[in-house]
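User: My instructor asked us to take a sequence, write out its structure as tokens, and then describe one feature of it. I'm not sure where to start. Here is the sequence I was given:
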Amino acid sequence: MAKDEYDEKADVWGLGVLTYELAYGRVPFPIWSQSDMIKIVKDPVYFPSWTNVSEKMQNLIKTMLNKDPSRRLSLNEILSSPLLNENVGPRTNIRSEI
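Assistant: Let's start with the prediction itself. The structure tokens for your sequence are:
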């Protein structure tokens, strides 16, 4: 990625990778060779069925790992996500905590 093409959506991708790894204990796209890099572009995100990760969390991760940067959530949209705010508590606004 050229320097002038980098924006917050690349950060959202990285956050999505980290969130996936925290939720599932592994990376979403294991890369063992250069040919595996192509799979990141082609293959959808796979969610293991053996965990108790909620559908809301999976949907949030999917939007952060969307292959099309224009379809990824912004950082503000992530912070405003009901999933995050409903789990923080009734008196706390997650945006004011950061």
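For the description part of your assignment, you could build on this observation: The mean pLDDT is 81. Try explaining in your own words what that tells you about the chain.
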